[in-house]
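The protein record quoted in full:
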Amino acid sequence: MKNRLVFTLLFAIVSIAIMRAQLPYTESFETGSGYTADVDVIDNFDDYFARMDTDCTGPPDPCAVNFFMGYTGFNGSFYWAGEDHDDPDVGGVATLCITLDAIDISSNTSGRINISMLAAANGQNNPFELANDGIFVTYAVDGGAFQPVHTWAYYSPDGGTTERLAYDEDNDGAVNGAESDILTGTFEAKDRDVDAVGTSLVIRICAHSEASSEEWAVDHIVVTSAAPLPVELTTFSAEAVEKGVWLDWQTASEVNNMGFDVQRSVDGKSWETIHFVEGHGDARQANTYRYFDPMFTGGALYYRLKQLDLDGSYAFSKVVTVQRDFEQIRIFPNPATDYLFVGAEVEERRFYIYNQLGELVRTPPFVDSRIDISNLSPGMYFLKLEVQGQPMITKIIKL
């Protein structure tokens, strides 16, 4: 009896040890385990969020038969796929997720990991209809907040005539013209190095689909150790002052560092590069950097650094935020065609209009609380208003 008890305890200990995957890690949906899905359902082979059998031999095999195109380039015999998730017989909600079991990364000494995977989608008949359609892959370390690693987002290069999913390089949820790597029925591979200092890693794959033909699929998620960053960023901070924002950062060492794109956002999602700061190339000693952004608006602004290597690779810093509240000054109408009116009873006022690159385009005349913008080209601008030496910036739209 005693020996049986010892054996049982040893078996339990070994079972616990082997249940937690270690690096290198692979999930190709071959065994039907190793993850937790919100649902695993195929509704009469029409709508689904499920593990799929690639041979499509029909019931009882899990295989959907209404693809506009057959998927190719998958790994093994299974993958995960979805379409029309908000069908009541599938999930009833448009966004559904798969969470992979925790991965032990305690053996990783570089503080960086590489996450690669395959993805595919219906590339015919303009299947994706909504701006929030997409595949969103995130990761979390030691129970922390989930951070984006791979995103395939809605993309229409022609204003709605062609609608696809395309790879979103900076994970901001909006694909621009330079990021037009469009998904098709052939699985494509993407990989990215991310910071991961800790002992446990969790990967979550979510997708949004609420219409028929919005077909997507993922497969072969691989996690391995990655080389440490060539640039070790030790600090990054932002401080609001009277005329703008000071950004300060420091590196402990640098290898092949071309420099830093300073990026700004008004909502924490859409980013623009406002300045480039040259790096030190190769440096074993600490280096400090500073940049002043005069375009400070009331409310919140978000900043991050895009560190660029000489070989073309890059990495993003953490996001820092600054906040300042101003007395409400009404500027109307906005959008406007010819004139803006400023509803503020103050004596000393100065006005500057900048384009989206931060370039001063004009200092318009101000007469009777009215700003003439009739000569501006249509588009978005920033109106900087100085009231008794205090700056306030707001977006304006010229029609």
User: Anything to note?
Assistant: The chain has a mean pLDDT of 81. The first strand starts at residue 21 and ends at 22. Residues 25 and 249 are 34 Å apart (CA to CA). The longest helix spans residues 2-19.
